[in-house]
Inverse folding.
């Protein structure tokens, strides 16, 4: 069955430092890939998505993600984090032909001042 | 643009009571999804509709849960009777069909506490 793994449950970085959140998926073909962010007490906001084409995708709030087929990965990056980036980040996939989003367990990001 | 609207935002009830959660999807979206978020199980899909018709309810935990979509602009998720283990955040999401149909937009969620 398809699955998404986010290996890091909790990451702490200093404000201004670079960030990379890891995401690996298990599926026989290329799924549609998403990153969502959830601020405390809020819903999920779409950061970016990958369907096809250029494997480096740009999203909102200065985030980007790179799809690597050989590694079944879709890691999220930001060159310089801001205190407002503290939140929980979810990687998700949709299997082509279906509408069901499968989420990873999430990575909680803490920003040190 | 109005996003997905959910009500209530918070619900506190006692075990055995009926709970109804409400959702208004984004206008023009053909798909509507109900998710549940808990610490133990993370985000899990309960049920989804296409053009008001339930397509997959395999994630509905048990018969105490039911969902309806009487029209394109309204859906309910009902729990009767409620139990403490139903305490969670329930999200509604919607998506369009066609080329952009794979992107789901989430509401703010309803935090349910069953005492």
């Amino acid at each position: 069955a398809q699955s998404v793994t986010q290996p890091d449950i909790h990451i702490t970085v200093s404000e201004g430092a670079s960030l990379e959140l890891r995401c690996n998926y298990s599926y026989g073909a290329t799924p549609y890939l998403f990153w969502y962010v959830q601020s405390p007490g809020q819903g999920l906001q779409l950061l970016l998505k990958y369907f096809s084409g250029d494997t480096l995708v740009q999203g909102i709030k200065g985030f980007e993600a790179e799809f690597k087929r050989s590694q079944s990965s879709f890691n999220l990056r930001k060159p310089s984090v801001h205190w407002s980036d503290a939140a929980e980040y979810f990687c998700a996939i949709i299997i082509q032909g279906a509408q069901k989003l499968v989420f990873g367990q999430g990575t909680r990001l803490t920003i040190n001042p | 643009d109005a996003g997905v609207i959910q009500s209530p935002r918070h619900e506190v009830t006692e075990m055995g009571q009926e709970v109804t959660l409400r959702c208004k999807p984004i206008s023009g979206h053909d798909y509507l999804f109900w998710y549940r978020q808990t610490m133990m199980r993370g985000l899990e899909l309960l049920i989804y509709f296409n053009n008001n018709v339930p397509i997959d309810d395999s994630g509905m935990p048990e018969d105490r849960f039911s969902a309806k979509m009487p029209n394109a602009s309204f859906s309910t998720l009902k729990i009767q009777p409620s139990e403490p283990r139903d305490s969670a955040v329930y999200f509604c999401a919607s998506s369009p069909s066609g080329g952009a149909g794979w992107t789901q937009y989430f509401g703010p969620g309803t935090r349910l506490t069953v005492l």
